[in-house]
Design brief:
Blueprint (H helix, E strand, L loop, with lengths): L1 H15 L7 H17 L23 E3 L9 E2 L2 H14 L7 E7 L2 E8 L2 E7 L5 E3 L2 H5 L19 E9 L2 H13 L8 H8 L5 H5 L4 E11 L7 H10 L8 E4 L2 H14 L7 E8 L2 H7 L9 E5 L4 E13 L4 E13 L2 E7 L3 H7 L6 E5 L7 E7 L22 E3 L6 E3 L5 H11 L12 H9 L14 H5 L6 H13 L5 H7 L7 H11 L2 H5 L3 H5 L6 H12 L1 H12 L19 E5 L7 H10 L3 E2 L9 E4 L5 H9 L2 E3 L1 H9 L2
Helix pairs in contact: 1-2, 12-13, 16-17, 17-22
The structure holds zinc ion.
Length: 661
């Protein structure tokens, strides 16, 4: 079909040529049109239509794939001197002749191998241990930067077999957006794009991994059979690009060693401006004849080497290791450091994440440690570089809470976390107050870190509800409040009573329930009582509420101290209803029907979203249906909708409509 080719052509322009000619919206429209056409004429659907990119979930776990040619790793060099030594060994082995080299960027991603048989993508696997990797075909098919079929090149036969190798990675921008969305949903964030990419390839559902917008760069091959004769690596890169595979444009053909050094220097200087993470350059001998002469060791080829860029690192001394108590009682070890500049920022603290990590690093007070900070990522301790003479061995896990000294410590289910479960723990209360008063929650100005600490330490506030009975005299007695400041806080507290249910729910700090989920919960249930009485099934119906967060929410609301708190807040006059009601939306009373597969939503979450906006979800298409949302593989419902002249929405249009509410 012409349209299918046009869409793949746009993918090629975007990912391979880096020169998009249509906007994302136009692209989505083309996809929606193709979906409609194919639903009408399934007989014309091409085997590798772009609508087939995201397939069904993988029913069982990972499948192991044996590589037909081992995927070797590269030896590393860490300085120009070491690189020079490598070049000298190569020249020696070639009887004094210095070969041409190709220098490429070393993308910090997940190495994968893609197999094309007669030009069609048939399978894909991760590098794994080099001999065996994991089957990731369904994820790689979903990546728009990977052609499902190689582009024909005039005068060049498509090889009967091409096993191409490269890196699956995530753009930094996509990574940041993805992490922000996770944070808003109350989920854990990923430390860096590579972790997120590698985690995506382990998921069972390609629609889920597609959300991370994985990309692929080809950099080498395992096997080429039939139809293509290549003499050098440079030829390979050129051929790969013309077949429609994305090849990183930062590749340089170098004749002298000085050119190699210059290319490495150029790439290193560009490093922080690139849209993706790189950790070095790769230098490869260009001619395949020379590569064969040089051969390989058991582990790595002799004709290629990695030149690792110096990381954004610094060393400093650990002044202390303290345990922080969060608002949910989670205890986190934190290293307090002798302040040091690292990648342009002064670093004085570094989280150790959890006690397993603390033990793994074996770090203790007085040690000199190596710090690393890449991009905007939080600094982390890589390793201990020098043990302190008088080591103070840190207990693996504290036996009591550093704030309340209660022995109430328990391992959190399924996590490597420890938690103080004392409901009256002062430090937890302090963090909960700060969260309750934060801008996205009850927005109480003047109730930040220091005010909260003062109120808790002086015993003026023993529960969040006490905030609403603060008096000017009480505040003045703290010493840190003058008359004006005290007045302002009392006014701000009073105003916050009418913020409404969604902000209140978020402010309560329920584990795994972020701002977005709080809003949807408030819209769905309308009142605090109705939310507190909700069943597991109805909760799971709300977008963004999985089984874990739904159970956590029920646990939270059945705790006696939560019930007491809610009662006291009610007595204090807080509005326990949603102020922005669903009835106000322009979609109320409308009926939606879903057909085909959705990428960003499950059928359940899309339906719940519609209901939250006061609209209905119909099972079948009738004259009463207002909108039909059609995804890939839409069937008879779509046809009926067309016949009845009902408005058809692509998933993107649906999302836009819903977000506009
Ligand atoms: Zn405690």
């Amino acid at each position: 079909m012409h349209l299918a080719r046009e869409i793949e052509g746009h993918n090629y322009n975007y990912y391979v040529l880096d020169n998009p000619v249509v906007s994302d919206e136009e692209y989505d429209h083309l996809m929606a049109r193709l979906t409609l056409l194919e639903a009408d004429h399934p007989e014309y659907r091409p085997v590798n239509s772009p609508t087939t990119r995201i397939g069904a979930k993988v029913p069982s776990g990972v499948k192991t794939v044996r590589h037909s040619v081992s995927m070797l790793s590269l030896d590393n060099t860490y300085s120009i001197d070491e690189l020079k030594e490598w070049q000298a060994r190569v020249t020696d082995a070639l009887d004094g002749r210095q070969p041409d080299d190709v220098v490429e960027l070393k993308i910090d991603g997940v190495s994968c191998s893609l197999v094309y048989v007669n030009g069609r993508l048939t399978s894909a696997a991760t590098r794994g241990n080099g001999e065996e990797g994991e089957d990731v075909t369904h994820h790689v098919r979903a990546m728009r930067s990977v052609p499902l079929e190689l582009r024909p090149v005039k005068g060049v036969a498509i090889p009967s077999l091409l096993e191409v190798r490269g890196e699956v990675y995530m753009d930094r921008r996509d990574f940041e957006l993805f992490n922000r969305a996770r944070q808003e949903a109350g989920d854990d964030v990923f430390a860096n794009p590579r972790n997120s990419a590698s985690g995506a390839l382990k998921l069972l559902d390609p629609a889920e991994s597609a959300k991370r917008k994985l990309r692929f760069f080809a950099h080498s091959f395992g096997r080429i059979e039939g139809g293509l004769v290549l003499l050098s690596h440079w030829d390979f890169l050129t051929a790969a690009r013309s077949f429609g595979l994305a090849v990183n444009s930062y590749s340089r053909l170098c004749v002298t060693f000085d050119d190699v050094v210059a290319a490495c220097g150029e790439f290193q200087a560009l490093r922080s401006t690139l849209p993706f993470d790189v950790d070095g350059a790769v230098v490869k001998v260009n001619s395949f004849a020379d590569q064969r002469l040089l051969g390989e060791t058991m582990k790595s080829p002799r004709w290629a080497v990695a030149y690792k860029f110096p990381a954004f690192q610094a060393t400093t001394v650990v002044n202390d290791i303290v345990v922080q108590v969060g608002r949910t009682g989670v205890l986190t070890p934190v290293a307090e450091l002798e302040p040091v500049a690292c990648n342009g920022v002064m670093v004085a603290r570094a989280t150790l994440h959890n006690f397993d990590e603390l033990e793994r690093l074996g770090v203790s007070k007085g040690d000199r440690v190596l710090l690393e900070r890449a991009g905007d990522v939080i600094p982390k301790i890589v390793k201990v570089v020098e043990r302190s003479a008088e080591r103070i061995v840190v207990r693996k896990v504290p036996t009591d809470c550093p704030s309340c000294r209660e022995d109430f410590i328990c391992v959190d289910e399924g996590m490597v976390a420890f938690r103080c479960v004392n409901p009256e723990c002062p430090r937890q209360l302090e963090r909960r107050i700060v969260h309750f008063a934060s801008r996205d929650a009850m927005d109480i100005e003047g109730l930040g870190d220091s005010a909260a600490a003062g109120l808790v330490d002086q015993g003026l506030v023993r529960s969040i509800a006490d905030i609403f009975s603060l008096s000017a005299d009480g505040l003045l007695s703290l010493g840190s409040f003058g008359p004006k400041k005290a007045d302002n806080l009392i006014k701000a507290v009073s105003e916050s009573r009418s913020r409404g249910l969604s902000r209140l729910v978020f402010g309560l700090g329920i584990p795994n329930v972020g701002i977005k989920a709080s809003r949807l919960l408030a819209r769905r249930f309308g009142t605090m009582d109705s939310l507190m009485g909700a069943s597991l099934e109805t909760l799971q119906d709300v977008p963004g509420m999985g089984e874990v967060s739904s159970k956590a929410l029920i646990r939270f609301f059945t705790r006696p101290e939560t019930c007491r708190l809610v009662e006291r807040l009610r007595e204090a006059g807080l509005v326990m209803e949603e102020t922005e009601t669903a009835a106000k939306t322009s979609l109320s009373g409308k009926t939606f029907v879903f057909t085909g597969e959705l990428v960003k939503y499950t059928r359940g979450s899309a339906s719940a979203l519609v209901r939250a906006l006061g609209a209905e979800v119909g099972a079948g298409v009738t004259r009463e249906t207002d909108f039909v949302v059609a995804g890939p593989a839409a069937g008879s419902k779509l046809k009926k909708a067309i016949d009845l002249g009902i408005r058809i929405l692509s998933e993107a249009e649906f999302e836009e409509m819903v977000n506009g509410q």
